[in-house]
Amino acid sequence: MMTLIQLCIEFFKTGLFAVGGGLATLPFLYEMSEKTGWFTEQDILNLIAISESTPGAIGINMATYAGYITEGVIGGIMATLALACPSIIVIILISKFLDRFKDSPVVQGIFQGLRPASTGLIAAAGLGVAKLALLNLDVYEATGNLTDILDLPSIAYAVIIFVCMRKFKLHTLLCIGISAVVGIAVGF
Fold first, then answer.
1. Both 68 and 160 in a single domain?
2. What is the pLDDT along the chain (188 residues), one digit of tens a residue?
3. 40-54: b or e for each residue (b if 16 or more CB lie within 10 Å)?
4. Which residue segment(s) compose the domain that 158 sits in?
5. Are both 59 and 127 inside the same structural domain?
6. What is the pTM assigned to this prediction?
7. Longest dimension (CA), the chain
């Protein structure tokens, strides 16, 4: 019961302060992982993969998955509700006042400050994911060989997917499907 309460508190805080969408929740999840031990960095990578490939908001999907692996179905439900609750409260409050104050220099200043903060949170999350997905830090620590640090097949595959999405405008779902098949076939 105590873990469930702590889970709700942690995800409520995450929902309150993760400005910038679902990927902005990643720094909070890394911190939560270190602080509580509920899930590993590998679990976070799996969480991202599942959240990106399932319908719905990525932050909500991540909360559901993290809650589930921590406290089962009830944990998944409670973490999801706890993450969404601050957004609902804030949006209701903002909607009451935004029309009246949207041209205010203070409100404009707040938005000017939140945009780069969101970008920073998302960039930090992206770098954390890249570190886990594209580097072999465990192998490097074991061997001390600098050439072991890069997971070259994963880096090449990430570049291929990036190019396919940017240059050839491949649909996200197609890339996810292809990646799942490649992962099974090659065993990334």
1. no
2. 788 999 999 999 999 888 777 778 888 888 999 999 988 888 888 888 888 777 778 888 888 988 999 999 999 999 999 999 998 998 888 888 777 877 889 888 988 998 898 888 888 888 988 998 899 998 999 999 988 999 999 999 999 999 999 999 999 889 988 998 998 998 76
3. ebebbeebbbebbee
4. 144-188
5. yes
6. 0.61
7. 62
